[in-house]
Amino acid sequence: MGRFLVTGGAGYVGSHLVLALLDAGHEVVVYDNLRQGHRGAVPQAATLIEADIGNERRLELVLADGPWDAVFHFAALSLVGESMEKPFLYLLENAALGMRLIEACVHHGVGKFVLSSTANLFGNPRKIPIDETEPVEPGSPYGESKWMIERALHWAGQIHGLRFACLRYFNAAGADPAGRAGEDHDPETHLIPLVIDAALGRRAEISVFGGDYPTPDGTCIRDYIHVTDLADAHLRALHRLEQGSVTYNLGNGAGHSVLEVIRAVEQVSGRRVPVRMAGRRAGDPAVLVAASDRLRRETGWEPRYAEIGEIVRTALAWREGHPGGYED
Ligand code: UDP
Fold first, then answer.
1. Domain span at residue 287?
2. 248 is catalytic
3. Catalytic annotation, pick one of 12, 31, 90, 142
4. 3-state SS record for 166-222
């Protein structure tokens, strides 16, 4: 069985990967500063190191304490809107620290690296669904920071032989179907948890950001992928690294509009969601849908929770059970 280091493993997607690694019998060390992550999101079976990836000395000590079969790198700032206001925060924290981590991995003989990347690499896609041949034009400093890390991995591969997987997530959603983990951001900005809160009466309404997009109902279309399916894709990508480095776009391949998501929440919860039409949010492209054919073909990945109703059902169950998130 393997031994893995997961930066940001106390965060939303990272914690679901940690569960998948533990379920597969691996040993897991989580490295997280708990600024956005939660202590309660780290299972007892994993070791938590509470530290920042900017803490070079600590990171060196941890990496030196190998061997590591791979490093999974999730630790990052991840809000597109915030990055449009504070570009250097994102470029420095995400890109520079990500590169330092890669350099330290190379130095300590870590041979495999899996990067949590983003669909925000495609700020203005020319073709939907978006496959891996789509030219990269980041939509924000957040997307740019991930692209810089992807490029650093490219050179670490060329020069030092590091094997890497760049996994470009579309819209991660849902919660562990067994209820062991879920989505808990502060502040919460993502559509599905906010719509669920509106259905549960925890907020007055949901604001729909723009009803005048060139889509059938005028609202933005996104590719919502279940976080457990995302975690599974990481394990498959890791396995695939035996044959060489990979880059995958990761989505279900089906788009849902904001209004469709609201209808799905109403159906699954049996409650009405108060809706208010609002203006567009800066930086939102009309449609983002992934073509994940390469991942399916090369790794045999298939989403187990592909239906938007199933995704919403797991998110609703977790949110109902954890009104205050992990603090409960
Ligand atoms: N959205 C919305 N109201 C909200 C939050 C999000 O209409 O309160 C829309 C947003 O404009 C986007 C979609 O829902 O089109 C998904 O947004 P989210 O922030 O969940 O993910 P993103 O696509 O930005 O990664």
1. 191-222+254-327
2. no
3. 142
4. EEEECEEECCCCCCCCCCCCCCCCCHHHHHHHHHCCCCCCEEEECCCCCCCCCCCEE
